[in-house]
DNA sequence: TTTTAATCGAGACGGTACGTCGCGTCTTGTT
DNA sequence: AACAAGACGCGACGTACCGTCTCGATTAAAA
């Protein structure tokens, strides 16, 4: 999935002589109307009943205009959600590793409780069956975050906060995996909240085995 | 989702007088043909293109016969998969907790690599958007396994293998969450294999922090 | 074009055990509603703007129901028109050949002036470009009438009313051709009325050359 | 239909100052490319699938350039065909009336068997439903020919070849109507060839009734 | 020679209709 | 009574063209 098929080109450079029309004014308005409509409709009635025709109607746009930019509904929602979501749960370094992840993971649980998070969760579900969506999520959501997080882990290793022989990805699977487990794998009373993040971090950073002198 | 609407009743007891007819011979054949067809078609062309009409054709069965038993495609596949999957990755106690989970988790990764696992993964994805499916997965797949695993963890606590103050569910999220993370959240080179399970267990049971005298 | 794909079977015979459903009550109603709607819409806004969707809406019927019976709009209109038109301009023998054709041709001009005639004219136009429609018109409209007319001509020959060496089809082209010429080939002040029929018959039966003793 | 909207003005006169540019070189090329493309495409795949977009592509011309000159596809084809067809079946006086029409009608049957004739036939069909096309055919094809033919008939009357009391239009409907009947009204084995023309003329000029002393 | 204004190609836009697929309901014999 | 068969109303799909509307990029004329 390479959406939008034609990338919206930043207007910040001086000369934009020959941008394709939809990058220009008329088309840009249509693009935005489509993205807005898709979010609006997804919120109103669930991702599953968002249709291209529905979006076209709601956005006051022709179906062809949509198909000129995106191949299907998931890719529209993907664009719409990611443009808003990437900033919503940043990963920023705090004084300690534990604190860094505490902050990040709490933001993440908050994100998934909100409108865009609900849609993102549905998209991750859908990605199990739609390869192009899988790639898009990986490229535009997961990997950029992982890259950052790996770097932070490595700095924590250098600082002696965690064992230097660990596979950083395994550590991330441990931390974030627990969250996504509660999010995606249905399980009674698996609340996803700040309390859970703290208990989780206790277990991960404190270790789960009985250590002499720890009790 | 309450599927199957009509539970297939075991014939092993002596009197089956009051079973609905389709549970008897004619209907039982149809039921089985439907389940088989759904798996066959899901494998052939992806869960997303499995349709009630397709199953009816393939199974040589009328659509009404399908709708008499299940409300939609996911519920058919749910039944078809679970009947085979629940036995495929049992959780059985080994000599140590670590060993117990090592065995269980390796079986699980193997399961998700196979035909039924692929379908189950797609169903978990679909469940993000279909409440009844979410419940079914919880009730018939996740909770039974969690219940067992919790008990084993508690026995490990009593034996002193792990800290007794831990929330068992958090520990399970830690262990299995990492696996599901790799399974569901697309991430480059996130291989799901036995090696990963071992490294993961090292981190969980060994702890991730630098411990005096461990280096 | 073999429309309707499934012929409406007369119910007059005693046993109609296994007619396809649309021949039975529900379907028969739909069929009639479609035919009625097509005529209604053709009259309202011209054959060219009759669409399958429009007919479906007007008839309160699903598009698929239409496509199950007919392949396109022209074939619907063809059925609708012919069911009414074949009786409207019968060819019936009168006391003389000239009288026979006078009556028939006057009926024909009247037919083409009416609702169904206007549609039939448009269909003949459309047939220039749609082979299946051409065949349908030939089989169900033109040929049956020509067959009758040829026979009447032959009887006229036997009675000595016209030359026995004539090609009957050529005579028919002469008579009816003049009418269709005025109908189809646009030509100013080419009125198509009873007066024209009489003048035409004068020319054909009287001959156009100057005959000794005729003046 | 007033096509072409902008009349192609002959360049033979000395001053062409005020001609719109497309009548000059650049535009003239485009105009010709459009006309050629329309004929080419009509021949390739039938008049019904000739589209403005198709012509634009084939001619390497923008859609706007087409719409600047013609309002729709039929008018383009009308122009394209008439520019070639008017010369193809001229009506020229021969030694006798019968000979005059024999030659003319044979040329006409030949015309309708060729590429342009097939398109013209389709246009006449289309004209049943498109008023502006009807007018164009009348003004630019039918009437000029009728005017000529009427005059020739009148001279034949003066020469005593045919009855002077006849309505010339009726005679023309008789003669040409037979041809158009075979052309437009589908009828099995209604071959349109020179043999038919001869037999037809025999019937018209010989009369169809049994005449004393003719046998 | 340079400007300038009409026309050009290209193709996006809002629409309408197409013909198809699958849904879940229904109806009709058959088993 | 449940079954196979399949028609039904419905909603959405993705595509083809419609006729309108910007866009720079040619031109060929006027300045």
Short description:
The structure is a homotetramer of 215-residue chains. Chain A has 215 residues and is mainly alpha-helical. Helix content of chain A is 64%, strand content 0%.
Descriptive notes:
The structure is a homotetramer of 215-residue chains. With 215 residues, the first copy, chain A, is mainly alpha-helical. Chain A folds into two domains: 51 residues, Arc Repressor Mutant, subunit A (Orthogonal Bundle); 121 residues, Orthogonal Bundle (Tetracycline Repressor, domain 2). Helices cover 64% and strands 0% of the residues of chain A. The first copy, chain A, has nine helices and no strands. Chain A is elongated. The N terminus of chain A is likely disordered. Chains A and B meet through helix 6, helix 7, helix 8 and helix 9 of A and helix 6, helix 7, helix 8 and helix 9 of B. Chain C binds a DNA duplex (31 and 31 nucleotides) through helix 1, helix 2 and helix 3.
Question: What is the assembly state of the chains in this entry?
Answer: homotetramer
CATH H-level name of the largest domain in chain A... which superfamily? Tetracycline Repressor, domain 2
Instruction: Quickly give the structural class of chain A.
Output: mainly alpha
N- to C-terminal distance of chain A: 52 Å
Summarize the largest interface: chains and residue counts: A-B, 58 and 58 residues
The shape of chain A, in one word, is elongated
* CATH-defined topology of the largest domain in chain A: Tetracycline Repressor, domain 2
What is the rounded Rg of chain A?
21 Å
Number of domains of chain A: 2
Spell the H/E element sequence of chain A.
HHHHHHHHH
């Amino acid at each position: 999935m390479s959406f939008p098929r034609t990338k919206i080109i930043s207007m910040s450079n001086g000369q934009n002589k020959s941008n394709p029309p939809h990058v220009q004014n008329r088309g840009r308005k249509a693009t935005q109307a489509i993205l807005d409509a898709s979010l609006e409709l997804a919120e109103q009635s669930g991702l599953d009943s968002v249709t291209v025709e529905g979006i076209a109607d709601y956005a006051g746009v022709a179906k062809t205009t949509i198909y000129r930019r995106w191949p299907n509904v998931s890719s529209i929602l993907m664009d719409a959600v990611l443009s808003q979501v990437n900033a919503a749960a940043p990963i920023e370094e705090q004084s300690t590793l534990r604190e860094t992840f505490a902050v990040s993971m709490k933001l993440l649980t908050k994100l998934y409780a909100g409108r865009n998070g609900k849609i993102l969760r549905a998209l991750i579900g859908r990605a199990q069956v739609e390869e192009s969506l899988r790639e898009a999520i990986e490229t535009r959501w997961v990997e950029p975050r992982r890259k950052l997080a790996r770097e932070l882990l490595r700095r924590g290793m250098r600082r002696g906060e965690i064992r230097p022989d660990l596979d950083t990805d395994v550590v991330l699977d441990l931390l974030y995996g627990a969250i996504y487990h509660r999010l995606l794998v249905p399980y009674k009373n698996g609340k996803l909240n700040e309390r859970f993040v703290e208990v989780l971090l206790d277990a991960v950073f404190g270790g789960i085995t009985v250590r002499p002198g720890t009790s």
